[in-house]
Amino acid sequence: MLATMLDADSSVNSSSQALAVAGPSSAPPAPPPPGSADAFQWTAGKVVLSLALFLAAGLCEIGGGWLVWQAVRLHKAWWMALLGAIVLFGYGLIPCAQPIDNFGRVYAVYGGFFIILSYLWGWAVDGTRPDTGDWVGSAIAVAGACVAFFWPGR
């Protein structure tokens, strides 16, 4: 029985190897090796796009969360929670438009922008003015996020 299993396994492996060599026609191309001519390069347009997407994502996440907060914590209309959920879904889609393909880096860097945008939302919408510590902490977070995201040679 073991010999039969091994024979079946080797025939599956042979088929898999043949398929891997031939490759399915819909498979995406392999990413270019680091440092190659096709490697990702930051341009002014990509930087502006990334920053605009971080702003849009922040407004959707904070705005959607604020709407849910209004409905749940402040007992406002139920439709505010529904609208908030829809806006939060939009927030989930926006980072997919970032020009880099590194999920972890995009979301980590977005966290720095989220901090300052949350304070600005609270000030503009709820009237809670950030204090000096809020501003300094936000500046450090955004500066760190920009270093992490735009570091040359990646």
Task: Walk me through the structure.
This is UPF0060 membrane ynfA. The structure is a single chain. By secondary structure, the chain is mainly α. The chain has one domain. It has five helices and no strands. The N terminus is likely disordered.
Distance between the termini: 52 Å
> How many separate domains?
1
Strand-pairing-aware structural class: mainly alpha
| Spans of at least 5 consecutive residues with low confidence | 1-6, 8-22
User: Main beta sheet, described?
Assistant: none
Large-scale geometry:
flat
Radius of gyration: 23 Å
* SSE arrangement, N to C: HHHHH
Q: Name the helicity range.
A: over 70%
Mean pLDDT comes to 84
Tally of separate helices: 5
Percentage of residues in DSSP E strands: under 5%
The count of strands amounts to 0
Précis, in short:
The chain has 154 residues and is an all-alpha fold. It has helices at 2-22, 44-72, 78-93, 103-126, 132-150. It comes from Chlorella sorokiniana.
Key features of this structure:
154 residues; mainly alpha; 5 helices; flat; disordered N terminus; membrane; transmembrane helix
Give the secondary structure arrangement, pairings included.
Blueprint: H1 2-22, H2 44-72, H3 78-93, H4 103-126, H5 132-150
Keywords: Cell membrane, Membrane, Transmembrane, Transmembrane helix
InterPro entries: EmrE-like, UPF0060
Transmembrane segments: 47-71, 77-94, 106-123, 135-153
